[in-house]
Amino acid sequence: MAAALARAGRQVVVVDGDLEGANLHTCVGVPSPRVSLADFVALREEDLAKLVVDTPIPNLRLLAGTQGNLGSAQPGHFRRVRLLQELRRLPCDFVLIDLGAGTHPAVIDYFLAGDEGVLVLTPEPTSVENAYSFLRAAFYRRLRLTLFAGSARRLVAQAMDQRNERGIRTPLDLLREIQALDPEEGQRFVASLREFRPRIVVNEVRTADEIKLGFAVKSVCQKYFGIEADYLGYVNHDDAARRSVLARRPLVESEPESDAAVYIARIARKLLAAAPARRSTAPLRRPEPR
Amino acid sequence: MKPLPEQDHYEVLEIAPGASAEEVERAYQVACTAYAEDSLATYSLFGDEDVRELRRRVEAAYRVLSDAVSRRDYDRALRGDQPEPPEISLELDPRLEARRALEPRLEAAPAPPPLEGFDEDSAADDTPCDGARLRRARMRRGLDLEQIAAITKINPSYLRWIEEERFDDLPAAVYVRGFVAAVARCVGLDPAAAAAGYLQRFEAVRAARKRARR
Fold first, then answer.
1. How far is B33 from chain A, CA to nearest CA, in Å?
2. Which residues contact B76 (CB under 8 A, 6 or more apart)?
3. What is the pLDDT of residues B163-198, one digit of tens each?
4. Strand pairing of A53-54 and A12-16?
5. Do A125 and B40 touch (CB under 8 A)?
């Protein structure tokens, strides 16, 4: 995706936010980056721009995630806030952060802090389940950042435990409880829902029916969470993707005519079209400690 | 954000009150996929009873909104111009379910609209049509090869070989031209231009292989 945006003439920095399993450098043809995000996390470097390295692809630069602390790769709370601020200052048109799987608070914060949050899933139950777990975690964390009253925030914290004693099963149950507790907070809840618009990509599509999964997930997000997700696009299963990893080059560079590359380019065009309108002027409140 | 029982038919199908008949149909198809018995999309979020209730609501909404007279009465009732129309049965009709499973509407409408929000390939218009372009156009309309075969009556193997450009397995050019034109019509491409472009590649490759064998 980053390479597709770079091919469209935009200055792009791609960041490997998967610090526990950093390998993005390999995909963009930088075998051993001399500096990385780990230098920022370990306080060895304060200027993030100095950690960005060139890649063989024009317009595309990399902030690698290699050489992280094996015990605790992700930055602590305050360092994470600083990182998010510094990322916005990088001199480029787009910063893309590749996030690892899971619901670590750091991963959720990177997702929520972006102007766009793109969730990639595949047409398999395990992947769909993980996608919903992530959305649920992001949804509740966003709510906790939005609400002011301690009592309402405590309710959200209780709702995050799926076996909570108050019987809050769905976001709708939670809304009802918050509205009963504090109508003003209820309004904030609803406003927060309207602003939260994750984008969905279905990867590894093999049949036309699997393409429709994106629309179905969008509908389920509306019915379950009350949020308007966007179905950004799909990418088909394509052996060209494997060949590009083996060649250590982005797919849109190594085989731009392949089906998967065409679909990725289409998603990049949609992101480009949406970018100016959706760039936020008021970033989220800073993340709270875990 | 309303609980399901409080949502009107438009909210259930997630469409605007002024939605066209085509939008109603499209929304219904999406809902059928989303809330089907073995749907991936509801996996891990909704229980079986929740899904059954959703399907009942979707079915009731579709029955009202897909019929012009029922919809007009319902709209009046929504605006408060006339009393609420009689309650629509929320029970699923097994015959209707079975018929939908066979998707007969597809045969009646040979060129379904493209899936919402996905544009055509960039720069595809200036290059001759090939198998990959036919495949992408087909998937963009949410169609499998079997569905194209049902519409065009062309053997699914030929359809697959056309997309995979297995030119040696395909019959004579005159047949391939007809096949490609029929597929192109189905997937929203210009049939004449697609057939001409495809045949250009088909004949060039076949001629080259023939020369190589001599």
1. 6
2. B82
3. 999 998 898 888 899 999 999 998 888 899 999 999
4. unpaired
5. yes
Chain B residues with a Cβ under 8 Å from any Cβ in chain A: 1, 3-4, 14, 30-31, 33-34, 39-46, 54, 115-119, 121-122, 132, 135-136, 138-139, 141-144, 147
**Chain B contact set for A171 (CB, 8 A):** 1
Tell me how far apart the alpha carbons of residues A239 and A258 are, in angstroms, rounded to a whole number.
9
Regarding pTM above 0.80, the answer is: no
User: DSSP letters of A146-212?
Assistant: H---HHHHHHHHHHHSTT-TT---SHHHHHHHHHHH-HHHHHHHHHHHHH---EEEEEEE-SHHHHT
Residue whose structure tokens are 């030929």 = B158
From A86, A88, A89, A24, select the one nearest A61 (Cα to Cα).
Answer: A24
Residue type (1 letter), B144: D
Q: Does the distance separating the beta carbons of A125 and B44 come in below 8 Å?
A: yes
Assess contact for B203 and B173: CB atoms under 8 A. yes
What is the mean pLDDT of the segment spanning B19-41?
90
Of residues B104, B103, B97, B112, the one with CA closest to residue B63: B97
